[in-house]
Specification:
The complex is a heterodimer of chains A (about 260) and B (about 220). By secondary structure, chain A is α+β, with helices and mostly antiparallel strands. Chain A has eight helices and seven strands; from the N terminus they run ββαβββββααααααα. Chain A is about 35% helix and about 15% strand. Helix content of chain B is about 80%, strand content about 0%. Classes of the chains: A alpha+beta (about 260), B mainly alpha (about 220).
């Protein structure tokens, strides 16, 4: 246990609702280096509530990096400056005593701010509902090795499927593009036999809804891959582009 | 809208147009560069090369129209994408850590592109117009003399060199980005594409910039 507490200034974005302009508010905290970022915010909220002040609204659920609920932009990085972790896995030992830490919500037109640090990410649900599933009946669990899938292909599909849908790619992209998310959801099925019947229909439907929701276009800066807590590869975006181009040129048109 | 225009107006469609026109322009630059390098062969060689191109003028005109269309598509789509992408984030971040997660070349395409566009207009005005319509240059085939005189103007040459550095910026991102957009990102050959793109862009920019440097430092007298 490290008993030396860190004295930090948290510059946190406060915004009453989506219609009111927000602003940064400074909070001085003294926190253990062993504390997680969200535990620090919990403590701060307890403190604010005891003083009858409005606590800071932020989201979290599993707090072990797999649900994708938490998501703050800390010092300009979605999920903070440490790569390959979600905000809930970020610990205060990564910060220096006396530091001023900027905490902002994900900023994108397609992710409107609900309150303080909470944004509405239902746009991702709408994209998923457009085609991020298999609607053919695949029956019960098949016998082992009844559907042969090479290990490398299974690995790639599983790597795409590790996307937790947190929206950090949108937050990191200078264009607020959702292509890393959508491409992961397209790829996890495009690589496997079960996903083939709807492969080209799926990519067209999901891209169409993505475009309608006001996300930007990809300009291949690869910031999304660098900031993704699960390290989803931009090769998935290439696969989505390929499938989309093939679908538009040679497959049945989905309107 | 037909399926074709719908596809081209989608986010991936617009990227695809950028990539396809970009690759065409990359190929054009190779041909343009080879032509320009004959300047180093002296007045006789360069003037003969341009004269030969003049002899096949109808064909050159057709190519010019195709090229202009490609340029217009690339510029129009690029500006449109930039504007739309700006709208996708109405409020920017207080702290921007983009330098830690992406390259400066990829983030400044609109700026490098805009300056190259300004260069292009000036370049067409000074070189293309003179080569085609200036009676002195065109009729007497004194292309080399005209070019060398132009590049001995320090202001013109320095602006040209700056534009070429930005061309290097633009191509450095654009080359590999086009392949990513086409979906040709494979772990076996994508590193090679990135390397080829890197060398292509900086060698091209360097060789183009070498021409004003050559004349500015008293070469070809």
């Amino acid at each position: 246990m490290n008993t030396n507490k860190l004295n930090l200034t948290l510059r946190i974005w406060r915004q009453k609702n989506s219609n009111t302009p927000g602003k940064f508010v400074d909070y001085k905290v003294s926190v253990s280096p062993d504390s997680s970022f969200l535990e620090m915010l919990d403590d701060l909220n307890n403190d604010l509530e005891s003083k009858n002040q409005e606590p800071i609204a932020f989201e979290s659920d599993c707090r072990e990096g797999i649900c994708g609920t938490c998501g703050l932009v800390i010092q300009g990085h979605p999920h903070g400056p440490i790569p390959r972790i979600a905000t809930c896995q970020l610990h205060m030992r990564n910060f220096k005593d006396g530091e001023t830490i900027y905490v902002e919500p994900f900023r994108a037109k397609a992710f409107p701010i609900i309150k303080d640090l909470i944004v509405d990410r239902s746009a991702f649900d709408k994209i998923q509902q457009a085609g991020g599933y298999i609607s053919v009946n695949i029956g019960s669990v098949p016998d082992g090795n009844a559907i042969p899938i090479p290990k490398e292909v299974a690995n790639e599909a599983m790597d795409a499927a590790t996307c937790i849908g947190c929206g950090a790619c949108v937050a990191a992209c200078k264009n607020a593009s959702a292509m890393l998310f959508v491409s992961a959801k397209v790829s996890q099925f495009a690589l496997l036999p079960q996903g083939q019947p709807e492969r080209y229909e799926r990519v067209q439907k999901m891209v169409k809804v993505m475009d309608e929701l006001g996300f930007g276009s990809c300009s291949n800066t690869y910031a999304c891959e660098a900031e993704c807590p699960k390290g989803i590869s931009i090769k998935n975006i290439a696969r989505m582009n390929r499938d989309y181009i093939v679908a538009k040129i040679a497959k049945e048109e989905v309107v | 809208m037909s399926w074709f225009t719908r596809a081209l107006n989608s986010s991936i469609g617009k990227k695809f147009v950028m990539a396809l026109t970009g690759i065409c322009l990359i190929l054009f630059l190779v041909i343009h560069l080879i032509n320009n390098l004959t300047l180093f062969g002296g007045p006789e060689l360069f003037n003969t090369v341009v004269k030969n191109l003049d002899n096949i003028k109808p064909l050159v005109r057709v190519i010019e129209i195709i090229l202009a269309t490609i340029f217009v598509l690339h510029i129009f789509n690029g500006v449109k994408l930039w504007w739309e992408n700006k709208q996708a984030r109405p409020q920017s971040y207080a702290v921007n850590a983009s330098s830690e997660n992406s390259s400066i070349f990829s983030r400044t395409m609109i700026y490098s592109g805009s300056i190259i566009f300004i260069f292009l207009v000036v370049h067409l005005r000074t070189m293309w117009v003179a080569f085609n319509f200036n009676p002195d240059v065109h009729t007497n085939h004194t292309y080399y003399e005209y070019v060398s005189a132009a590049f001995r103007e320090p202001l013109y040459s320095i602006a040209y060199i700056i534009a070429m550095i930005l061309l290097g910026f633009h191509l450095n991102h654009g080359f590999q980005s086009a392949f990513q957009t086409f979906g040709w990102n494979n772990k076996k050959y994508f590193p090679l594409i990135q390397k080829v793109g890197f060398f292509y862009s900086w060698i091209t920019a360097f060789l183009f910039a070498l021409i004003p440097i050559y004349f500015l430092s008293g070469g070809g007298q």
